[in-house]
Amino acid sequence: MSMFCYQCQETAMGTGCTVRGVCGKTEEIAKLQDLLIYSLKGVAEVVVANKIDVSEIGEVNHALINSLFTTITNANFDGDAIAKQISAILELRDNLKKKYGNVPVKDSAVFTVETKEEMIQKAGEVGVLATENEDIRSLRQFITYGLKGMAAYTEHALNIGKENLEIYKFMYHALAEIEDDSLTADDLVKLVLETGEMGVQSMALLDGANTSKYGNPVITKVNIGVRSNPAILISGHDLTDLEQLLEQTKGTGVDVYTHSEMLPAHYYPYFKKYDNLVGNYGNAWWKQLTEFESFNGPILFTTNCIVPPRKEEIRERIFTTNATGYPGCPHIVPDEKGYKDFSPIIEMAKKLPAPTQIEEGEIIGGFAHNQVFELADQIVEAIKTGAIKKFFVMSGCDGRMKSREYYTEFAKQLPKDTVILTSGCAKYRYNKLGLGDIGGIPRVLDAGQCNDSYSWAVVALKLKEIFELADINDLPIEFNIAWYEQKAVIVLMALLSMGFKNIHIGPTLPGFLSPNVVDVVVDKFGLAKSQTVEEDMKLFL
Ligand code: SF4
Ligand code: SF3
């Protein structure tokens, strides 16, 4: 076995990628990512052992979240960039030791490596399989993946200038705890829930950051057709990158289209003033190889998910920023004021043909918590009269697996008195089906990106209050979540920590959950795997 990774839903055979990632990750990238995580554990050891006040170590906090984010599925395939990041983390770790003293003895806090080869060799000793007990390994990885998702949301908030020091503090604490061999499985289950609680905080932080800067999302119809100008496609989740791109393309004759998880940007009032923000092109991330081809113009990745481009012609049009990276693709870094120079992308766009139309029409979204609260009377009335019998939270991710057709079929077969609450790229499985409305309320309500799953938790709490229920699980809300990468893991953990029970996830259970850990989550939280559409329809209704 040359590598081992089982962090995402597409992991080979449902158990682990051992030769090459299904995502395209090579042994080298997998190992460098393992070592980056291990280096972060060393930093955490130093911070925790020395009781360092996190408000004094801003640079380390930011490197921590950026590094965790770098290891998320489909974010970074650039080995040189990851190796550089490892060296930077080790330098920060050693500077902390010099400044704060009290060096802990754990290997993660003292090991040294110089070259990429040494890094790869060291990684062989410290990867996922270094923990022999499969249940402890499972819980440690569950927490690690939750932290990765949390880091992504925290970084987007940071880009807007918003931070919550408690989140950093928790991350160091959790990374140090998962290095601690004295912790039992029960201790780690407790830490899973604590991670979920902090996940709620990270989504709340990002929600606050996004809405304070860009306004509360409002109901919006988004064009899915094209115009005749040359254009740039922006993908990922970072709204500050979109803002800078729109500012820099203003008046240049270059249009901007969103892709995949950037679609919800259209819902924010702030972006409506840009008349060159034309619409959303294409679908979820996994369709990018064909959609990038017909888009014709350059593509900017602000976060995952990158699919390694098979054609050189497409690779040449890809730019990355933030935690993303791909070998040979220009990576745009901000100056000390946070300004990113997107002029190479704009210049490239001007020389390329306009996008080829692949769809036409509009899709509707913008149902984040504030907008839903404005419709509260209408929704409560519809529940009371029985016009709406049930809500189905179908947030999460989309992916390549054929079995994900389940979600389209499930949406189609849901009775007409049910409403789908969605967020994340999972929506592309049913947001163009034309499922109609119930007295003016669309049957698919899109709150936004995966982090906006937070909105559905807020809405559920509000409904619990309105209907004066003792238990949130007494609401007519079912959860049928599609997961793919580690942001969905933190969303799931957050829901569990909030007390939501009987959540169904699919298309498969996480490969990183060992049989015993599966038993615990089934027992404690009623977590279940989605079955066939027919079986689940019977069960839910
Ligand atoms: Fe495999 Fe997923 Fe890991 Fe990629 S991220 S190597 S597909 S488990
Ligand atoms: Fe999608 Fe990658 Fe998870 Fe943000 S963009 S939800 S998969």
From TrEMBL:
InterPro entries: HCP/CODH (IPR004137), Hydroxylam_reduct (IPR010048), Prismane-like_a/b-sand (IPR016099), Prismane-like_sf (IPR011254), Prismane_a-bundle (IPR016100). Its EC number is 1.7.99.1. It catalyses: A + NH4(+) + H2O = hydroxylamine + AH2 + H(+). It is found in: Cytoplasm. The modification Cysteine persulfide is found at C397. The keyword Cytoplasm applies. [4Fe-4S] cluster binds at C5, C8, C17, C23. Binds 1 hybrid [4Fe-2O-2S] cluster. Its cofactor is hybrid [4Fe-2O-2S] cluster; [4Fe-4S] cluster. One of its GO terms (molecular function) is hydroxylamine reductase activity. The keyword Protease does not apply. It comes from the Bacteria. Keywords: 4Fe-4S, Cytoplasm, Iron, Iron-sulfur, Metal-binding, Oxidoreductase. Pfam families: Prismane (PF03063). Its main location: cytoplasm. SUPFAM superfamilies: Prismane protein-like. Hybrid [4Fe-2O-2S] cluster binds at H237, E261, C305, C397, C425, C450, E485, K487. Catalyzes the reduction of hydroxylamine to form NH(3) and H(2)O. Belongs to the HCP family. This is Hydroxylamine reductase. It comes from Aequitasia blattaphilus. The gene is hcp.
